[in-house]
């Protein structure tokens, strides 16, 4: 029941909020880039500089623009292909190789004018926006390029891109050369980075749940904005900021950290749009005029692959949602190493899931055997328990006390059957987080499922069923059916020690659980529902083996009889429990025999003084 309630609450919490359509016509003013403001007043004086830069707002004669036209430059390695635009000297488009979208199109992380990368600062009292100017292309190679925006022969803005070999990272430097007299010392330079995060996966809802802005402040752990609602945050001393999707991310890393960052994530206004979220980061750093100014950075455009991000040792691995606490430890120290080990020589991830499930079940087999033996012992004691119910059925506390005495004398632990479930819970929830976040499973087919990282579908429905969806997942059906069979098998081994009405209620609840799984797991990762199905099937097999070779009821009964004859040393905990039960029984007996008379008199007496009356102490006389 607790598991069922937890799944229901968790699923409800993960539901996306209602689409918020902003009807305020001024709401887009902050992102508009088409305004044009004159750079000088009619009398020739400079316009007062503002923090908001404008597009197509070149200051006449400030930079050399004659004969310069926009060029597109491609640099690439075997991991990514990056298209750069000389207008603004920015990243224009990013293609991640070796990966495709769910519909087999090239996987594009940043695309054209849907992203903005613009520097804003003051030069000679004029507001400068680099996106308004076309840079000159210099020093181009297959994996590097330098852009320069000249003020004169000795003064220029420089942006240098250098893509590493066989790597998703690209070194990026922003340099100001020869501006010692044009820019005030310790003035602020603002980097405005915005992009529309594009749908890449089959389920847009699942992808939206895991899309957001992540960041790391210096000397602290990584954090993130809300992944299910509009959110914003102002942070200090940023090491990096990432626009993260379910399986990919675009990250900007500052080698000397940003002074401040204003981060935001917004839902798209059009629910039918393929844009998942609109992410933005306004990053500030300080200009130092002691010489030519250099601000080294680094881009990462690639997958949310845990081992890859972990190797960078800068906290980016936190973008892979493996779970918190013990659930994350299970994934980091058991599940991921096993996946990496098997994937070295097995190419089918369905087989890898099968092997991992077998290993987990074999590790838990001793506890599982002990659990079933405990159930068998309690089942053997069923006649004695029924006799106690006949004798003390009208006194629940006495019945409970006598049952505990019976268990203690026979050497039976009524909680012994819970141990396997206790140890399986961390693994269960670790898997719950691992499968939807594991890029290794992305677009990996198995049987009828074409992608183990998302739901499998054997039938697309022409309508949407509330809480269920518009498709039928066969792995989900198999998981629910196997759960039902598993519960029926457990009923045959678990003794019914309660009343018949309670037993009937429990049976109804057990039938309800598999039905609930149909609704909860229908849109879950096929790898996860396949794991649940395998886990149940292996449990059937273990239960049969244990019942066949490890449980002999005649032998167990004789063992219990021998235990009852042995003198038992009572633990302090058991003694306290029995003492508490005896006190409760005595109190109940006094009440039934009319012991409440004194209580009534006491209540009547106190009623004249108030329920919290405390007699005052007499003052001692100071006289001798």
Which key features would you list for this structure?
elongated; 37% helix; 13-stranded antiparallel beta sheet; alpha+beta; 15 helices; 624 residues; disordered C terminus
Helix fraction by DSSP (H/I, runs of at least 4): 25-40%
Beta-strand percent range: 25-35%
Average pLDDT over all residues: 78
Using the CA coordinates, give the radius of gyration.
35 Å
Number of helices: 15
Largest sheet: 13 strands, antiparallel
Task: Describe the overall structure.
The protein is an alpha+beta fold and 624 residues long. Helices cover 37% and strands 25% of the residues. The strands form three sheets. Strands 5, 6, 7, 8, 9, 10, 11, 12, 13, 14, 15, 16 and 17 form a 13-stranded antiparallel beta sheet that branches. A hairpin with a 5-residue loop joins strand 8 and strand 9. Helix 9 (419-437) runs antiparallel to helix 12. Mean pLDDT is 78; it is low at 16-55 and 596-624.
């Amino acid at each position: 029941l607790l598991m069922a309630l937890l799944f229901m609450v968790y699923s409800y919490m993960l539901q996306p909020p209602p689409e918020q359509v902003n009807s305020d016509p001024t709401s887009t003013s902050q992102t508009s880039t088409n305004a044009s403001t004159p750079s000088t007043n009619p009398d020739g004086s400079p316009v007062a500089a503002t923090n908001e830069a404008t597009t197509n707002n070149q200051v006449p004669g400030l930079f050399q623009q004659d004969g310069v036209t926009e060029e597109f430059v491609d640099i690439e390695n075997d991991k990514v292909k990056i298209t750069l635009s000389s207008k603004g000297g920015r990243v224009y488009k990013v293609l991640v190789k070796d990966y495709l979208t769910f519909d087999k199109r090239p996987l594009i992380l940043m695309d054209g004018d849907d992203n903005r990368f613009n520097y804003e600062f003051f030069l000679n009292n004029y507001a400068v926006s680099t996106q308004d100017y076309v840079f000159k292309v210099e020093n181009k190679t297959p994996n590097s390029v330098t852009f320069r925006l000249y003020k004169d022969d000795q003064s220029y803005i420089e942006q240098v891109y250098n893509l590493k070999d066989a790597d998703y990272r690209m070194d990026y430097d922003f340099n100001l050369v020869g501006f010692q007299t044009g820019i005030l010392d310790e003035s602020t330079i603002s980097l405005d980075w915005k992009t529309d995060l594009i749908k890449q996966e089959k389920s847009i809802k699942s992808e939206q749940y895991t899309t957001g802005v992540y960041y790391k402040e210096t000397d602290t752990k990584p954090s993130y904005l809300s992944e299910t609602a509009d959110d914003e945050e102002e942070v200090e001393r940023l090491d990096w900021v990432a626009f993260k999707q379910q399986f990919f991310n675009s990250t900007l890393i500052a080698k000397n950290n940003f002074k401040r960052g204003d981060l935001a994530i917004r839902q798209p206004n059009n629910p039918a749009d393929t844009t998942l979220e609109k992410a933005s980061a306004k990053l500030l750093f300080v200009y130092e005029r002691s010489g030519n100014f250099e601000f080294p950075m680094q881009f990462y455009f690639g997958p949310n692959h845990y081992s890859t991000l972990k190797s960078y040792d800068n906290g980016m691995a936190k973008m892979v949602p493996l779970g918190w606490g013990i659930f994350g430890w299970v994934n980091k120290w058991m599940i991921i190493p096993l996946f990496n080990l098997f994937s070295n020589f097995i190419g089918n991830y369905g087989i890898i899931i099968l092997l991992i499930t077998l290993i987990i079940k074999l590790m838990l087999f001793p506890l599982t055997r002990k659990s079933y033996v405990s159930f068998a012992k309690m089942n053997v004691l069923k006649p004695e328990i029924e006799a106690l119910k006949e004798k003390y059925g009208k006194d629940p506390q006495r019945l409970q006390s006598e049952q505990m005495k019976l268990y203690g004398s026979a050497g039976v632990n009524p909680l012994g059957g819970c141990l396997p479930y206790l140890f399986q819970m961390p693994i269960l929830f670790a898997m719950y987080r691992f499968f939807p976040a594991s890029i290794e499973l992305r677009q990996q087919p198995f049987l009828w499922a074409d992608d183990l990282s998302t739901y499998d579908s054997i039938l697309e429905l022409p309508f949407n069923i509330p809480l269920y969806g518009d498709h039928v997942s066969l792995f989900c059906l198999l998981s629910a059916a196997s759960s039902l069979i598993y519960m029926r098998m457990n009923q045959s081994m678990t003794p019914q020690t309660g009343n018949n009405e309670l037993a009937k209620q429990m049976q109804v609840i057990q039938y309800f659980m598999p039905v609930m799984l149909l609704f909860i797991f229908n849109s879950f990762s096929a790898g996860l529902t396949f794991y649940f199905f395998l886990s149940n099937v292996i449990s059937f097999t273990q239960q049969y083996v244990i019942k066949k070779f490890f449980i002999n009821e005649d032998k167990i009964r004789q063992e219990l009889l021998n235990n009852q004859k042995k003198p038992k040393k009572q633990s302090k905990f058991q003694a306290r429990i029995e003492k508490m039960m005896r006190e409760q029984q005595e109190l109940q007996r006094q009440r039934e025999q009319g012991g409440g008379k004194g209580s009534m008199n006491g209540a009547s007496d106190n009623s004249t003084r108030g329920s919290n009356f405390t007699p005052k102490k007499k003052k001692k006389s100071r006289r001798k």
